[in-house]
Amino acid sequence: MTTTSVSKGCFVFKPSAKKKKKTLSLEDHFTNGCEGADNSEIRFKLCQDLWHKIRADTEVLQDELNRKILDSLLDFTRKCSSTRQHSDWASQMRASEIPTAALVLGVNVPDHDMTFQSLSELLQQSVTPHVASVQAKECGALKHLMKRVLERLMDTVVTVDDEEEEETEQTSTQLHKSVHCSLSTLCDWYNAKTMKSKTGTPGKKRSSPVRDDPQQPPVVIIFKDLEAFNPKVLQDFILICSRYVERLPLMFIFGIATSPSTIQHMLPHSVSSLLCIELFQSLSCTQHLATVIDKLILTPQFPFKLNGKVMQVLMSIFLYHDFSVRNFIKGVQLALLEHFHSQPLSVLCCKKKEALLNVMQLSHHDLESIRHLLSFRRYVEKQEPQEQLNLFRDDTHLKEVCQKLIKDLRKYHKNYYPVLRCLHTLTSSLPRYPLGKQVRELHLICLEKNVWENEDYQTAMKLLKMLAKDELIASLQRCVEILQPVKSKKMKKALVELEELLAKFKQLDTVAAETLPCVEDCITSPVKNLQKKTDLFQLQKTLLEMNESRRAKKLSPFEVLRNEALEFIDGLVKSHLSPPESQTLNEVCYYSSSATVRRHLNATPRTSIQAALSSPYYYLQNESLKTEDGTVSNAAPDICIAYKLHLECGRLINLYDWLEAYATVVSAAEGNNPDSDNVRKVEEVKHARFIQAVSELEFLGFIKSTKQKTDHVARLTWGGC
Amino acid sequence: MVVVVLGAPGTILRSVWYEEERLLRVAQQMPCREVQAGMLLSLMGQPQQYSYPSIFIYGHRASGKSHVMHVLLKELELPHATVSCVECVSVALLFEQVLLSFFGCDAASLLPRSPSLSDFVRIYRQQCSQSPAKQTRYIVMEKAELLRDTDANLLPALLRLQELVEDNVTIILLSEIVWDKFRPNTGCFEPLLLHFPDYSKGELQQILSQDRHPSYTAEFYSSYINILLGVFYSVCRDLRELRHLAALNFSKFCEPLAEGKVKETDTHKLWRNIEPHLKKAMQTVYLREVSSLQWEQMQQMEEKESGALRGLSAHTHVELPYYSKFLLIAAYLASYNPARTDKRFFLKHHGKIKKTNFLKKNEKTSNHLLGPKPFPLDRLLAIFYSVVDNRVAPTASIFSQISSLVTLQLLTQVSHDDQLDAPKYKCAVSMDFICAISRTVNFDIVKYLYDFL
Fold first, then answer.
1. Count of domains for chain B
2. What InterPro entries does the annotation carry (chain A) (predicted)?
3. Strand, coil or helix: A509
4. Tens digit of pLDDT for each residue in B273-303?
5. pLDDT of amino acid A604
6. CB proximity A278 to B under 8 Å
7. Which of B253, B281, B314 is the last residue of a domain?
8. Would you call A620 an interface residue with chain B, using a CB distance cutoff of 8 Å?
9. B63, B159: one domain
10. Average pLDDT for A688-693
11. Residue B183's domain is classified under what CATH number?
12. Chain B partners of A175 at a C-beta cutoff of 8 Å?
């Protein structure tokens, strides 16, 4: 570009309007590079709809979970603002403390935003319009904290009330002059505000105590991340606020991630004595996740499913790394997007009616890909030869079969989840939890392989066979409750059977009274015999007999019934809890690429750098770089060659040897004979290229300069050749 | 010429320039501070006379410094400006408040953006030439110790402000710290020092008895205060706190009276009733383990139920992700073990090295007494990988967990934020905490600590 200016300098060239790239819509991004592009639009729409539904549901869920703690918090604010207005002797004598709610939220910091969002919304709706929330990173110094608080408080009002724009504009211009950034400004503003809202007392003096007025909404300041605040700043701010608490009904909410004792670590007694701290403990994040999984994953409501490995990856990220429910849902979103993007048959992953319709609209190409599905081929093998031929030749027939299969898959899901829950209620109270404490663990087991072949399942069943009557009845009762709302035919049938069993258990009480004496008779009779015999051999014999008879003893009616019940449960498990991989067309609904999810969510920067350096073809996609594993083509970028050579060295690398080796490789690439004399001398260009490569390696942290030996550098990574 | 007659405590202040009645009112409002008030009055001299340029008053918290100044200046209607130094986040606010209360908003608005001291002096002179002081103007600065952290020229300039602005103005500095800690090393004008001693037990009794409950007799309340001081005087002499505690516990004290079990005069029975209660208050509400609101609710509840309420420090359990726990454990080991000993703990074939063999002189003292030592990131990760039981890929989230441990203040970053290369950390958790954490992951941390070898 040229300028008309004669002087040297930097010039800004704004891109001309027509050159501006057309911003691609989400859909364009989706279709771009998508597998099987012809139905990508439908898939995009399905994906979007599903995601919106999932998001809406999780938000509702989150609100419900937070409701309890938020309600108690709201009560606290109301109570505080009302006690402030008492004027009896005790409250006059009491030091005026600032009411403070310590909200313990757990270490899953990414989730807090949502909680605070809904908290401040709720506060604004029902208690006070004056809510300001501040974060530590924007309040390095007291000045900034003060400024943020004032801005937030006064600005929120600007957006709420349009009539007062003039006045607030004034204050905002004042605010720009940070000179006025003091709490007394806020006091004046607050008084003006409350004065205006109640008509008829314009003559009231500013300094008149606030507590006379029942209509004084508190001013709430939320400190989102207390731990990250500079203690000095916080202390000073509290000291200042306490000077104004008579005039301004202030209130604090501390968001605490670790434990409430941090307050005492951060604030000395002289400051904490100015606060009236009440503790609120929120739900733990594991419970939170359990509910989310319960409502989001373990339900036939959403057609999209995760397979065992993907679940495992998401769970381990949650448990091992961040405890963040939000990130978990983000992971589900990624899987959802990837599924619809990469699987052309995901067009069938939707509501029943739509899916059936979409089956009819499948193209020949799509049908071919169905024929190639692993699960479908397994299905075909089981059919008659004539049917097999039909399935491979006749598209319309295949479509009909597909409709049937889709219906079957839906039925499978409808039965799977209730039975899973039943099994979990039975096993979750067993000692040492053979099938896991949480339903998600059981789900993972079931996703992997046939659960009834699992050893833990056998032990669980054995333990169940020893269950006492009242416990068994209670668990079965809970199973009934689980099965009750389920609408599928099979589950209804199961429910009826289960209820019959329960009824039998209850009848047992009455029957037992009659049968009991007879049982006692059987046991006592040999004992009576025992007393008669005194011979040692006879005694031994009778004892053995007694033992035998006890072992082969007729089972009590309860035991018979218990076995019957457990066999029934076992039957349910065997018929409904088979892993999804065994279902035909499971690829439509199940996302299975755990590696993709792992790569995206749990990035490994060092591994990717090493991969790039050792096999540049992987990233550059240049045919000439393609080599057998372990070697680097001599046409690779300089840094790759240098990296490869440095792997062959020990802890200390002689720079000159390295340079020689490098020069040899590069000149071989240029087609020179490495032995000829003129190559022996290293060219300046090659020297420069080598130095650049070395400094790049240093920047990436593979080597560093060392003082141990001259002309050497130290290796910082281990392994290699 | 003696202008002020100082009497024994309790007598009335005397000064020739103010009406008797006013002085009486002043004296009533500040019990047990007559001596200091009298001293101040004599320092102030006649209203129109120049006073001493700067006075420095120090005394512990709640020893009546601000109160005495406030009452004196207000009741005697002297022109004054009261500024709290905590509130002045910038000097501009300080200047503005002074100008505002002496000359009105117009003068304050003359200050430029981010004014300097000379701006302030210029505007002050300009204004006081228009309205010269008829009486001494007083500038009271509360929490003056914070002035030390501001610009170096501010404190010396304020001390001789009278000279600078050529006006009848006196600066009164109030502080909890003695003057010796203020004196800048460049030297400055020495203010007059005035000490406010702590209230004695008798004085506290006298002051606290004044705010009696309207529906009870003065003697009854006074006996209550006597009991209260008996319990609390040894731990707390802060008048404000004591008054707060008195208000919180008075209803409990009156309980047997309201039930008709005891007469007002039966002090012993009342004492037996209230004493355990006050002792409990000392452990809970005084330390702010329990908020005053909760304390009041607890009083209304039955004895048994109130036991369920736990204080703030009772909640120390922190739930952490699995790898965060190990990172924290690794950080703790790195902080409390000497780097030389890592080989012994984390290498498989370290050979038999006895502790005595590698004891150095300075390491004989327990590392736990010396506190955590800083360690580089590399060492933390090396220990982490050998401590954690399965193979962990060095993913980005491992690194982000380290920084989130820093924001949670379980680790502290020792090097500056800007230093990207080899940052250094310290572990900031206690032994008990780390033991609890390692118990949850079945890791016997004591076996890996050099101090407990």
1. 3
2. ORC3 (IPR020795), ORC3_ins (IPR045663), ORC3_N (IPR045667), ORC_WH_C (IPR040855)
3. helix
4. 888 888 888 888 787 777 877 787 777 765 5
5. 87
6. yes
7. B314
8. no
9. yes
10. 93
11. 3.40.50.300
12. none
Rounded mean pLDDT, A318-322? 90
A-facing residues of B in 389-448 (CB < 8 A) are 393-398, 401, 404, 407-410
What pLDDT shows up at residue B174? 93
- Residue B216 in any domain: the answer is yes
Give contacts of B244 with chain A, Cβ < 8 Å: 93-95
Same domain, B174 and B242: no
- Where does the pLDDT of residue B139 fall: very low under 50, low under 70, confident under 90, or very high at 90 and above? very high
The proportion of chain A whose per-residue pLDDT surpasses 70, expressed as a percent, equals 83
Domain spanning A84-196+209-283, CATH class: alpha beta
Domain boundary among B164, B195, B226: B195
Closest-CA residue of chain A to B405: A107
B378 lies in a domain?
A: yes
| Residue pLDDT, tens place only, A17-32 | 555 555 667 777 777 7
B440 and B327: one domain? yes
Residues B189 and B58 both lie in one domain: yes
Mutation target to probe the A interface, by most A beta carbons within 10 A, among B91, B176, B254, B408 is B408
Q: Both B70 and B183 in a single domain?
A: yes
CB contacts, 8 Å: A321 with chain B:
321-324, 395, 397-398, 401
Binary contact (A278, B294; C-beta < 8 A): yes
The amino acid at B340: R
Binning pLDDT at 50, 70 and 90, where does residue A543 land? confident
| Structural domain of B307 | 201-314
Q: Whole-model pTM?
A: 0.82
Amino acid type, B148: R
Q: Which residue from B291, B318, B321 is facing A277, i.e. has the nearest CB?
A: B291
CB contact under 8 A, B248 and A79: no
Give the pLDDT of residue B50: 87
Mark whether B342 and B288 lie in a shared domain: no
Query: By the CB < 8 Å criterion, does A423 face chain B?
Result: no
Q: Are residues B284 and B239 in the same domain?
A: yes
Contact A257 B408 (CB under 8 A): yes
ipTM, two decimals, is 0.89
Q: Count how many pairs of residues, chain A against chain B, have C-beta atoms within 8 Å.
A: 155
Closest Cβ–Cβ partner in B244, B251, B321 for A323: B321
Q: What is the SS3 assignment for chain B?
A: CCCEECCCCCCCCEECCCCHHHHHHHHHHCCCCHHHHHHHHHHHCCCCCCCCCEEEEECCCCCCHHHHHHHHHHHCCCCEEEEECCCCCCHHHHHHHHHHHHHCHHHHHCCCCCCCHHHHHHHHHHHHHHCCCCCCEEEEEECHHHHHHCCCCHHHHHHCHHHHHCCCEEEEEEECCCHHHCCCCCCCCCCEEEECCCCCHHHHHHHHHHCCCCCCCHHHHHHHHHHHHHHHCCCCCCHHHHHHHHHHHHHHHHHHHHHCCCCCCCHHHHHHHHHHHHHHHHHCCCCCCCCHHHHHHHHHCCHHHHCCCCCHHHCCCCCCCHHHHHHHHHHHHHHHCCHHHHHHHHCCCCCCCCCCCCCCHHHCCCHHHHCCCCEEHHHHHHHHHHHCCCCCCCCHHHHHHHHHHHHCCCEEECCCCCCCCCCEEEECCCHHHHHHHHHHCCCCHHHHCHHHC
B96, B161, B172: which is closest to B139 by C-alpha? B172
B19 is a domain residue:
no
Closest-CA distance, A472 to chain B, in angstroms, reads 32
CB contact under 8 A, A109 and B407: yes
Q: How confident is the model at residue A114 (pLDDT cuts 50, 70, 90)?
A: confident
Chain-chain contact of A604 with B394 (C-beta, under 8 angstroms)? yes
Q: Is residue B245 part of a domain?
A: yes
Q: Quick one: closest CA in B to A264, which residue?
A: B313
* Judgement on whether residues B402 and B386 belong to the same structural domain of the protein: yes
